[in-house]
Here is the input.
Amino acid sequence: MKQSLYCPSDTVEETLDTVPVTSAQYKEVLRIQQHIIKMMAQRKSHHIIFNTLCTMAETLLENAVATIMLKDKETGLLNLKYAPSIDKKDWYALESLKPGPHGGSCGNALYHNQPQYVVNTFEDARWRDLKNVAEAFHLCSCWSMPIRDADGNAIGSFALSSFEHRAPTIFHKVLLETSANIVSIVLMHLSDAYRVTLLNSTIEHMSEGIIFTDHHNRIIEVNPAFEKIYGYTANEVSGKDPSILSSGTHNKDFYKQMWERLVATGHWSGEIVNKNKAGGLVTQWMSINRIYTEDGEENYAAICTDISPMKKAQEQIAHLAYYDPLTGVYNKTKLMEVLDEVTSSVALVAVDVNNLHTINMAYGFAMGDSVLKAVAALLKSEFGANALFRIDSDEFILLYESEEAAISDVKQIKRYFYKNPLAKEDVTLNLTFNYGIASGENVFKNAIHALHISKRDGKNRCHRFSPETDLLSKEKKQHFIRINHLLHRALAGDGIVPYLQFIHNNTTDSLDRCEMLARIETEEGVLLPEVFLEAAKLSGLLPEITRRMIKKSFACMEHQATPFSINVTEDDLNGDYLAAYLDEQNRRYNIAPERVTLEILEGISASAKLNHIEQLKKLRAQGYHLAIDDFGAEYSNFERLLDLEIDMIKIDAKYIREIDTDTKSREIVKAITSFAHNLGIQCTAEYVHNKKIQKIVEQMGIDFSQGYLFHHPEKHN
Here is the structure.
């Protein structure tokens, strides 16, 4: 290593600037330029080019290293990118340098966008932040030239760092400037080449067809997507007028307006129908733009997006918007639109296919779908409806001009399906339907309401909507509103209260069990279930009332040993919360499940969903007793008693209250009691209000009696 020499930079620069550049030195710089240009022409990697540039520059300054640093666009920090003579493990010292007045020669070159010639890195203020780096690697002097972009902004630096204190000669400054310019050129070339490559690749791989035409409107280039869309190769259309694609669909005015727009604004876009090589029509969205060559000639670039699939999809979407995908008939959306547009009164028949669920379960959903398609086809073709709509899985709507026509058609449909069983896949099905007929205002709503009434009456029934009988009266609506208001206030406060009614054991002649009856205490008085239950169900409040009753009943019975019963509703079973909630309250109040009887209405037990049955069986397995309340009032499904393993039947009050005078009631009670006892099920007679009725109850062997004869419901204190 040469002996270090320190001179203040100003003095040295002034002295060495007087040393002229020799002819040999100019040749060396020229040699570097020519070599790098040759490498660029050979498409050498820019990594190889930059490393070669550094190496060649180092041969012209003994005991020095050349570096190329570039600014990170996101952080603004300088990073060492190329330094072939510096060990890779030492690069860390020159990573993430912050440009600034004390950030070294390169940091200052970038910061000031001016060359920086530092003779003594140990003492020069420009190296204050990097003095430790200079000392660690014995970098005595460092000359740095900014690398600039096309706009003259500093984006990096080319530097020569020496292991001795020295100042640059004019030749070294020329070398630095030349090298920095070469880096700038290569970087700009890379950027341009990248953009061109990216653009070409994009055009090549675009799914849209692209057509380039010259100033004579002759095709000069197309991309592969064009060839795929139109079936023409690039050679077949080269030099041709784009009119070869014309389909004849558009008139002369269309193309005249297109060119007027292009000439005026340089742009046109719109839907156009062209023709491919095979003569097929291609619907496209075409966007044409005027572009200029380097010579200023007007060319045009057209981007053609094939929208034929989109148009087909739009048609399919429009079809799906108004048609049922399974049966092909109109759907509910179309029905609503039709009803909005009709100006005169129409009649609707709502039709529900009976037992479709059973068909699906027995024969599979494919069979069920086949049945629905066959039913839709028959309803559409064999009868007199103006239109047919499918509005739900097993529900259809038939549209008629009058209610008389609707009623007549329902009779025909009934007769047809009675005489003509439906044969599908070697299976013969005798189909029946429920019908709801309505006309006038709110026709759809009323037809569905009528259908639900017909289904409530049984299968294969028809109900004609009547405003007088099927709509709530104004008084009843007001009643519901008032009760609903009271219910919400009671739930918000503490108005749900259990009343105890003890039950007489006819075997032991004692009151040894009780029922917890729901009461609502309001400022208007105490409300009984017959007043608030229907409103509570309509409002969806029954589960919350049941929860309050369970909690308060358990609290009442916490310090008593009396068995007790609580009513549960279908809404509670729909919520599927009973098992968990009962278990929670059991633990809280230390109530054994064996003390609790859950009373369910007969209608629930007779038509319970599978999930309901599973819940009830689970509750019984946990120790709770199950009772059927008001047995005999509705369906009297004796088979379901066996499914649920019922412990108690509570015979409906309408039979007990007249058992002493009505022979029919007495026989029904006798039959129920006999059946229950044969199954090992106990019976309770409800509404026992006098001794005469109690005597008959005892004679029939009924196990328990409940009524005012023994105890009036009272609030627990």
